[in-house]
Amino acid sequence: MKRFIIPTLFTTLLSLTFHTPAASKGKAITFKGKGCCAKCCLKIADKCQNVFVVEKNGKKTRYFLADNKVSKGFHKNLCKGIHEITVVGVCRKVDGKLVVTAEKLEKVEKEK
């Protein structure tokens, strides 16, 4: 009986270790904040990169957008100005910075 249980347990644990799709992909979250360019508006980067700031309970948190097709296509909206935006994406911490890989970006239109 021991000969059967130990290999089975080992195989099960090994398969769980290498098969964690939720942990590797992450869950998409919706953010709302003020977006702009890290180089042109904030002067904190050497090259253009989208950044947005979310304010919650009086605390401001800065998120950098990862360079992907969605972010690059949206950059023209943020390069020379600050705009309210909605971001749907997966957030992770990279080198001490919060980085969001955007799946969807929208400019929030102001009500008249």
Hey, roughly how much beta strand do the residues contain?
35-45%
| Element pattern in H and E | HHEEEHEE
The level 1 CATH classification is Mainly Beta
Unreliable residue runs = 8-24
The quaternary organization reads as: single chain
Morphology call? globular
Sheet with most strands: strand arrangement:
1-2-3-5-4
The helix content is 25-40%
* Mean of residue pLDDT values: 81
- Our Rg estimate from Cα atoms comes to 20 Å
Figure out the total of helices.
Answer: 3
Number of domains: 1
Largest sheet geometry: 5 strands, mixed, barrel
Explain this structure.
The structure is a single chain. The chain has 112 residues and is α+β, with helices and mostly antiparallel strands. It has a single domain (22-107), classed as Nucleic acid-binding proteins (OB fold (Dihydrolipoamide Acetyltransferase, E2P)), CATH 2.40.50. The protein has helices spanning 2-18, 21-25, 69-74; strands at residues 29-37, 50-56, 59-65, 83-94, 97-107. Strands 1-2-3-5-4 form a 5-stranded mixed β-barrel. The longest helix is centred in the first third of the chain and has 17 residues, at 2-18. The model is unreliable at 8-24 (pLDDT under 50).
Record keyword descriptors for this entry.
single chain; 112 residues; alpha+beta; OB fold (Dihydrolipoamide Acetyltransferase, E2P); 5-stranded mixed β-barrel; 5 strands; 41% strand; globular
Summarize the topology.
Elements: H1 2-18, H2 21-25, E1 29-37, E2 50-56, E3 59-65, H3 69-74, E4 83-94, E5 97-107
